[in-house]
Amino acid sequence: MQAIITVVGQDKVGIVAGVSSKLAAMHINILDISQTIMEGSFTMMLLGGLPEDADFKAVQQALTDFGTQQDLTIRIQRQEIFDAMSSL
């Protein structure tokens, strides 16, 4: 299963490393990634490959909790839902 993951927050050292480490710990492969800093705000969007047996709700909650701990907003959407919404 593939998912779109977005990360937004105030720019600080270690965001990419922290998010990448969290994803690796959950066996989520980063397939594509884009990031930028806009007037002090960090934004990142990535395509992640989740294991076939991944519990999507558990992954979603783990990323939300990690984001809260890091003072970031992290959201995840299944790629097919993201694609359907962006084709409207």
Automatic annotation (TrEMBL):
<comment type="similarity">
    <text>Belongs to the UPF0237 family.</text>
</comment>
<protein>
    <recommendedName>
        <fullName>UPF0237 protein FC91_GL001426</fullName>
    </recommendedName>
</protein>
<dbReference type="Pfam" id="PF13740">
    <property type="entry name" value="ACT_6"/>
</dbReference>
<dbReference type="InterPro" id="IPR002912">
    <property type="entry name" value="ACT_dom"/>
</dbReference>
<feature type="domain" description="ACT">
    <location>
        <begin position="4"/>
        <end position="77"/>
    </location>
</feature>
<dbReference type="InterPro" id="IPR022986">
    <property type="entry name" value="UPF0237_ACT"/>
</dbReference>
<dbReference type="InterPro" id="IPR050990">
    <property type="entry name" value="UPF0237/GcvR_regulator"/>
</dbReference>
<dbReference type="InterPro" id="IPR045865">
    <property type="entry name" value="ACT-like_dom_sf"/>
</dbReference>
